[in-house]
Amino acid sequence: MIAGIGMDMVNVRRMERWSGRPGLLERFFHPRELDAALSRGKGAGLSLAARFAAKEALGKALGTGLEGIILKDIMVINSHNGRPEMQVFGTALSAFEKSGANRIHVSLTHERDIAAAMVVLEVV
């Protein structure tokens, strides 16, 4: 059963501006997630924008927004075959558990200056 659906879009230039501000990316991204995105070189902005959109989409899927959730408690990484996966910790895990869902599906996409993400929360 679907417990929630969320979608969000982020302008890639926003992430590129943020990368020029010391400490800002570390405030919003889990260290492992940030390392993986930055390892993409010129594609880092696209990767970060898609992941930030996924975090916002999670808040929408929860139906509560991101109030009280520390964004770096949400990590979007790629599995061994490239599929994006969302993991939640701390404040995000608490909000996820309150939702009644027990599975997170995430899809990421980007085109030029826009990155988008969709999150589906499921009760299995």
Describe this structure in words.
It is a single chain. The protein has 124 residues and is of the alpha+beta class. The chain has a single domain, classed as Alpha-Beta Complex (Ribosomal Protein L22, Chain A). Helices cover 40% and strands 31% of the residues. It contains 5 helices and 5 strands, in the order βααααββαββ. The protein has helices at 12-19, 24-28, 31-38, 44-62, 90-99; strands at 2-11, 74-78, 84-88, 103-111, 114-122. A hairpin with a 5-residue loop joins strand 2 and strand 3 (84-88). Helix 1 (12-19) crosses helix 4.
CATH fold type = Ribosomal Protein L22, Chain A
- The residue fraction in helices comes out at 40-55%
What's the level 1 CATH class? Alpha Beta
Could you describe the largest sheet, including whether it forms a barrel?
3 strands, antiparallel
Low-pLDDT runs: none
What is the β-strand count?
A: 5
Number of domains: 1
Q: Architecture, CATH level 2? A: Alpha-Beta Complex
Mean pLDDT value:
94
Order of helices and strands: EHHHHEEHEE
User: How is the largest sheet built, in terms of strand order?
Assistant: 1-5-4
CA radius of gyration: 14 Å
* Distance linking N and C termini: 7 Å
Strand content: 25-35%
Q: What is the number of helices?
A: 5
Choose one word for the global shape.
globular
Counting helices, strands and paired strands, the structural category is: alpha+beta
- What is the CATH homologous superfamily assignment? 4'-phosphopantetheinyl transferase domain
